[in-house]
């Protein structure tokens, strides 16, 4: 039975076709693996850069806030007023984010969806 199958494949030249098809599929799989590796490397490198930018932005914000609070303390000649004022500014910012979070969420989601659509083109 196996011998008959081989003869039919050879007669119809399907053995070369099957070899070529399997080689093609293997090549496509390797190509997809390489593309995935490149995409992962690109995403990780961007994430690392953004993480360092976020760390430095937070450090800047902390030191700027302490400096501003200290400056306001000197302006009002009170040892704690500057810290309360700076904390109040952060509380207002937090309140704004809480109030407008749904709009911000939808805007960010829309932005990422546009990025994904651009990436697919």
Description:
With 121 residues, the chain is mostly helical. It has one domain (2-120). Helices cover 93% and strands 0% of the residues. The chain contains 4 helices and no strands. It has helices at residues 2-12, 14-76, 81-99, 101-120. Helix 2 runs antiparallel to helix 3 (81-99). It starts with a helix and ends with a helix. The mean pLDDT is 86.
Task: Give a nutshell description of this structure.
This protein is mainly alpha-helical and 121 residues long. It is built from four helices and no strands.
Enumerate the spans where pLDDT stays under 50 for 5 or more consecutive residues: none
Instruction: Give the count of helical stretches.
Output: 4
Which descriptor suits the 3D outline? rod-shaped
Helix content: over 70%
Order of helices and strands: HHHH
How is the main sheet built? none
Q: Could you tell me the strand content as a percent range?
A: under 5%
């Amino acid at each position: 039975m196996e011998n008959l199958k081989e003869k039919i494949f050879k007669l119809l030249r399907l053995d070369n076709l099957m070899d070529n098809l399997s080689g093609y599929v293997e090549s496509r799989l390797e190509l997809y693996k390489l593309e995935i590796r490149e995409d992962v490397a690109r995403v990780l490198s961007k994430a690392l850069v953004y993480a360092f930018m976020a760390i430095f932005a937070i450090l800047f914000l902390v030191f700027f806030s302490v400096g501003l609070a200290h400056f306001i303390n000197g302006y009002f000649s009170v040892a704690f007023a500057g810290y309360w004022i700076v904390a109040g500014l952060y509380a207002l910012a937090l309140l704004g984010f809480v109030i407008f979070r749904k709009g911000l969420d939808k805007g960010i989601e829309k932005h990422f969806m546009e990025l994904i659509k651009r990436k697919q083109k």
